[in-house]
Amino acid sequence: MRDDGRGAGADAAVEALFREEYGRLLASLVRRFGDLDLAEEVASEAVEAALAHWPVDGVPDRPGAWLLTTARRKAVDRLRRDKAYAARLAVLQIEAERAGPVPPPEADGGLPDERLQLFFTCAHPALAADDRAALVLRCLAGLTTPEVARAFLVPSATMAQRIVRAKKKIRQARIPFRVPGADELPERLPGVLQVLYSIFTEGYAASSGADLQRLGLAEEAIRLARILRRLMPAEREVAGLLALMLMVHARREARTGPDGGLVLLADQDRSRWDRTMIEEGRELVLAALSGGPPGAYGVQAAIAALHDEAADVATTDWPQIVALYDVLLALGPSPVVALNRAVAVAMRDGPEAGLRLLDGLAGEPRLRDHHPYAAARADLLQRLGRFPEAADAYREALGLAGTEPERAHLRRRLAAVEPAC
Question: Which is a GO BP term held by this UniProt record (predicted)?
Fold first, then answer.
C-alpha cells in the first residue's frame, strides 16, 4: 500500500484516481454480469468503500484491481439475496449465448479494450445519438451529469433525462452487451467518435473544478483513438479525430502558467508545444483529407494544424481558417462552429466584423450558457474601446465559467476594463 496522507488532500487524490479508474471498472463489470444497472450500483458501492478505507489505510498499489474485486463481491452478494435479479440476469445470459461468444479483449477480430467494446455497444442505432453519447460519457468516462450537460450545452435536468431514457431503452430493447460484428462497426462508428471527442474535450477544457485541464482524461481519449485507428485504418474520420486530438493536445504544457492559470493562445510559448505530436498529427490530417470528400473531424484537424504551424497569432493563415470553418458549417450547422468562425473573421477582418457575426448569434439558445461566447464578445468590445459593454460581457462570462483558472482570467480582464467605464 502507498500512503497518500490524510484528510482533504487524501480525499482529493482518491477522487481523482476513482475518476480515472471508473470507466475500466464499469466496463469490466458489464462484461462480467451483462447488466448496466447492476454494474453501476456495485461500482458505486465499491467507490464508497474505497472512500471509506483508502484515506485511512492508503491507496492500494493496484487500485483498479481493488475496486473490481470489491465490486464483484458486492454483485455476487446482491445476486444471492435478490432472486428476481438473478433470474433476470439468467435470461440475459441466455440471450448473450444465442448472440454468440464475446471475444476476449485482445482476441483477433475483437476490440482490444473493454471500454471500446462497451462504447460500440452503447452506440447501438436503437438509441438516439445524443442519448447514447450521454450514456457513455456518464457511465464509462466517469463524468458527472452536470459535466456531461456542459459538454452538450443543455441543462443538467435535460441530460439526466437523456441518460435515464437511454438505459431504459437498453433494458426494453434487450440490447446485448457484446462486440458488434464487422458489418455493424461502420454504422456505429460516428457515435463512438462523438463520444471519444467529448471525452477529449472535457480533458482539454474541464467543465468545472480547480484545474483548467484534466490531462489524464485527454490522454485516455487519445489512447482509445489510437486503438480505433489501428482497428479501422481505412476510416478517414478516425484519422481525422486522432489528428485533431494530437494537434490540440500538443499545446497542453503552454496552456497554463506555473500557477495553473490560463494562458491564451496568443500568449503561449510555442517552443513548449509538442512538435513530435504535431508532426504525427500532420500526417494524419493528410490521411483524413485524402481519397474523398472531407469529414468534420478532418476539417477541424486541418484548422488545428494551421494554428500549430504558425509562428504566432499575427502570421496565422486566418483567411484559410475562415474558409475551413465555412466548409465545416456546410457539413453540419453548429452554433459553436459559427462562434469560432466569428472569432476567426475578427482576426482576419477586424473586431467590428467579428462582433457583427457574434451579435447575430445572440438568439441561439445553445450559446446562452456557453461562457466562451460571452468572453469572445467581451474581448471584441474591449478591442473596440466599448468598455462598459465589455465589462458587462465579462461579468456574464464570469458567471458562466466552470473552472477557477477561467474565472481568474476573466476577473483580470474585467479589472482591466472597469476603470475605463
Answer: DNA-templated transcription initiation
pTM: 0.74
d(CA 411, CA 189): 41
* Span 285-344, pLDDT tens digits: 999 999 889 999 999 999 999 999 999 999 999 999 999 999 999 999 999 999 999 999
Q: Is the pLDDT of residue 142 over 70?
A: no
End-to-end CA distance of the chain: 58
Asked if residue 216 lies in contact with residue 203, where contact means CB atoms within 8 angstroms, the answer is yes
Helices then strands, counting H and E runs in the chain, come out as 19, 0
Question: 40 is written with which cell numbers?
Answer: 453501476
Domain with CATH 1.25.40.10 in the chain: 329-421
- Tell me the angle at which helices 371-383 and 387-400 cross, rounded to the nearest 10 degrees: 160
Judge whether residue 95 has pLDDT over 60. no
Q: What angle do CA 143, 149, 155 make, to 5 degrees?
A: 145
Residues of the chain above pLDDT 70, percent: 84
Better-scored residue on pLDDT, 102 or 392: 392
Nearest CA to 122 out of 203, 161, 178, 162 is that of: 178
**What does the angle CA 295 – CA 147 – CA 228 come to, to the nearest 5 degrees?**
40
CA distances from 33 to 107, 133, 177, 339, 365 (A): 20, 22, 10, 44, 41
Q: Which of the four CATH numbers 1.10.10.10, 1.25.40.10, 3.30.1050.10, 1.10.1200.10 does domain 329-421 have?
A: 1.25.40.10
Contact (CB, 8 A) for 388 and 419: no
| Band (235; pLDDT cuts 50, 70, 90) | very high
Q: What is the pLDDT of residues 331-363, one digit of tens each?
A: 999 999 999 999 999 999 999 999 999 999 999
- In the predicted model, what is the mean pLDDT of residues 148-171? 83
The DSSP output letter for 109 is T
Handedness of CA 227, 126, 19, 198 (dihedral sign): positive
DSSP 254: G
* Share of the chain residues as helix, strand and coil, in percent rounded to the nearest 5: 75, 0, 25
Q: What are phi and psi of 373, to 5 degrees?
A: -65, -50
> Residue 19 is placed in which grid cell?
475518476
> What element of type H or E holds 25?
helix 7-33
